[in-house]
Amino acid sequence: MHPSHSQGTEQGDKDWLKDNWPGEDIGPDRKYETAVFLFGNLRCSEGKCACNMPIDIGDPVEMSGYNTPREANIGHRETCEKYAQNVYS
Question: What does pTM read for this prediction?
Answer without folding.
Answer: 0.61
